Amino acid sequence: MTKQWKQAWQAALLALVFFFSPAQHSTASAESLDYSSSVQNGKLVVSASLKNPGDGRSIGVIAVGYDANGKAIASKSAKTFIPRNEVGNYQLSLPNAGKIVNVKVTLTTP
């Protein structure tokens, strides 16, 4: 087989495995993730809440702080168990609050 055929077969097999793999849990939607931030004692404190519409499970979030050039300069993650249809709350503290101009919070994959 040529190199291109091998790569095509590997990609096709990977897609089939992914497609037929049973989902263990439903995933939380991005719309259910809310967060805000404030500066406290020189740190950027990010408060996030997430409603779990699926089965009870541990769900993680990661907060990334960016400088004026769009470079990631700080990150912090946390994970908590959230029962079905309940809200989990997170509080993440990022250093260098004076240099952070933007923060993004996203769900981590299980």
Describe the 3D structure:
By secondary structure, the protein is α+β, with helices and mostly antiparallel strands. It contains 1 helix and 6 strands. It has one helix spanning 3-20; strands at 33-40, 43-51, 57-66, 72-82, 87-94, 102-107. The strands form 2 sheets. A 3-stranded antiparallel beta sheet has the order 1-2-5, with no helix packed on it. A 3-stranded antiparallel beta sheet has the order 4-3-6, with no helix packed on it. The longest helix has 18 residues, at 3-20. It is globular, with a radius of gyration of 19 Å. The relative contact order is 0.23.
Helices, by number, come to 1
Beta-strand level of the residues, as a percent range? over 45%
Q: What is the topology, as strand order, of the major beta sheet?
A: 1-2-5
> Which spans have pLDDT < 50 for at least 5 consecutive residues?
11-31
How many distinct beta strands?
6
Largest sheet: 3 strands, antiparallel
As a whole number of angstroms, the C-alpha radius of gyration is 19 Å
Query: What average pLDDT do the residues reach?
Result: 79
Question: Percentage of helical residues?
Answer: 10-25%
Which key terms come to mind for this protein?
three-stranded antiparallel β-sheet; 6 strands; alpha+beta
Provide a quick synopsis of the model.
With 110 residues, this protein is α+β, with helices and mostly antiparallel strands. It is built from one helix and six strands; from the N terminus they run αββββββ.
